[in-house]
TrEMBL record:
Keyword Coiled coil: no
PANTHER family: METALLOPEPTIDASE M28 FAMILY MEMBER, PEPTIDASE M28 DOMAIN-CONTAINING PROTEIN
Domain Fibronectin type-III: 391-471
Protein name, as recorded: Peptidase M28
Subcellular location(s) of the protein: Secreted
Organism: Deinococcus piscis
Protein origin, superkingdom: Bacteria
Length: 482
């Protein structure tokens, strides 16, 4: 039996197991609960026998495996060929500088769109940053390039993947020296372009945006401008996956690892109001904001569709004292996370190309592992496709059951044509991931779990489509007492 066939057979077994559990009305309770904590629900016996969703979507499995290391390598080599992509480098050359890189990326998106019959809407966003702004010493036009694969059901619901166009050397104001930026961040940008190629094979219910953002090294300008546009135009941003350095496997710490990657996320929105903060203090959920749910989602889809990868959640907005292009989206109130390699090599970041005491410095192509970059691109694609096909998330999720031997949840379903039902997720308050779930078929918008004391667990609700794709888990935003 081939490994691939064996894996598919195992997943089919999981799907059959899920259906069997659905006949009982709930997933198997964790052993630690004991027999006295059996779960019960409001639905009738007939409703509980509704078939549970499949364990995986074969289309997502195909897409996750589709990114090409060869195409990613070719794109990284092209980006390196522009000499420097510094935000303030030249813009009038066809072969050198940030201007040439921006035009090349736009052309690549247009080629992809032509091959899929015009499925991508390709845009440039140009914003003038005046001299005297942070890390800008001359009037500079910051240009983002992005492509929209427009959703067929909810076109104003957006899932975004981004990479950075610009590069730098040691001196952040040096706009002329050669700065290949092979890993930081031609790898993330090449992954974004490759994701556009792969995802353009399908249509999705929600819109998917593939974005190249400029000005990251200067002051996160590109992300700030696109986030402002999304907010001004009323985009419903489901989540942003910022890819910044996805090609290095040799850490400065001596570790070589081509299997793991990190997902950075903030606990809740920076702009959370005082009422929300007090509610978190009183009812819990300090690590359960939308960005954290997005990080858990990427973790889960990676484990489902790319089991050879080991995603690592990091409970920080970004690396210690550093930043990335997901932060402006967080600041604007959108769920956003950073995906990147686990073991960084600081000798290859923000460095002039040189050799000192036998040590090579500089972000050159020899520091990029293309197979690894392709796998991390696949992790992005799995999450993007799953969210692209996911139903609208439930709203007004409320939790009850205080001073009772039962946890209770209520919610309002989103407007969905393809809704099969909902999953109630729960875990101990000290656990980092959702560990258990209960399946609730469509038509039931409240659920009681008898024997599960609400004090000891966190809960959330996700909408599930007929093909098994889920929305982000929605953490309860209110409580009720009856």
């Amino acid at each position: 039996m081939s490994k691939k066939f064996g894996y598919l057979t195992a997943l089919l077994g999981l799907s059959l197991l899920a259906s069997a559990q659905a006949d009982l009305g709930a997933d198997e309770a964790p052993a630690a609960f004991g027999a006295a904590t059996a779960l019960t629900s409001a639905p009738t016996t007939a409703a509980r026998r509704t078939v549970a969703p499949p364990a995986f979507d074969p289309r997502v499995m195909e897409l996750a495996a589709a990114p090409s290391a060869e195409r990613i390598e070719a794109d990284i080599r092209t980006l390196i060929g522009f000499g420097t992509r510094h935000t303030m480098s030249q813009t009038d050359s066809d072969t050198q500088g940030i201007g040439a890189a921006v035009r090349w990326m736009k052309t690549e998106f247009e080629k992809i769109s032509a091959e899929c019959g015009g499925c991508l809407e390709v845009y440039e966003q140009r914003t003038l940053v005046k001299a005297g702004s942070e890390r800008i010493d001359r009037d500079t036009e910051v240009v983002n390039v992005y492509a929209v694969l427009r959703g067929t059901v909810r076109p104003n619901d957006y899932v975004i993947m981004s990479g950075d166009i610009d590069s730098r050397v040691t001196d952040v104001m040096n706009s002329t020296s050669v700065s290949p930026g092979a890993n930081d961040n031609a790898s993330g940008l090449a992954g974004t372009i490759e994701a556009a190629r792969v995802l353009s094979r399908y249509k999705f219910a929600n819109s998917i945006v593939l974005a190249g953002l400029s000005g990251e090294e200067q002051n996160l300008y590109g992300g700030e401008f696109l986030a402002a546009k999304a907010k001004a135009e009323g985009w419903n941003v489901i989540g942003v996956l910022n890819n910044d350095m996805i090609g290095n496997i040799e850490g400065v710490n001596g570790i070589i690892n081509n299997r793991s990657f990190r997902i950075f996320s903030e606990p809740y929105f920076q702009g959370a109001d005082e009422k929300t903060l007090q509610q978190r203090r009183f009812y819990g959920g300090e690590v359960d904001g939308p960005s954290r749910q997005l990080a858990r989602y990427v973790h889960r889809t990676t484990q489902t569709y790319l089991p050879q990868l080991d995603p690592m959640m990091v409970y920080r907005l970004d690396r210690f004292g550093r930043g990335g292009h997901h932060t402006p989206f967080n600041n604007a109130g959108f769920p956003a996370v950073r995906l990147m390699e686990t073991n960084e090599n600081y000798n290859r970041q923000h460095q002039d190309i040189r050799t000192e005491n036998g040590v090579q410095y500089g972000d050159v192509i020899e520091g990029v592992n293309f197979d690894y970059a392709a796998r991390l691109t696949g992790a992005n694609v799995a999450a993007l496709a799953s969210l692209g096909w996911a139903p609208a998330a439930p709203t007004d999720v409320a939790l009850g059951g205080g001073v009772q031997p039962a946890a209770k949840l209520r919610w309002k379903p989103g407007t969905n044509r393809n809704l099969l039902g909902h999953k109630i997720y729960y875990r101990l308050t000290t656990e980092p991931q959702w560990t258990h779930s209960v399946w609730v078929p469509a038509g039931t918008n409240e659920y009681t779990m008898t024997g599960l004391v609400v004090d000891n667990y966190y809960f959330g609700v996700a909408a599930v489509s007929r093909d098994g794709n889920e929305s982000l888990v929605q953490f309860p935003g209110s409580v009720f007492r009856n």
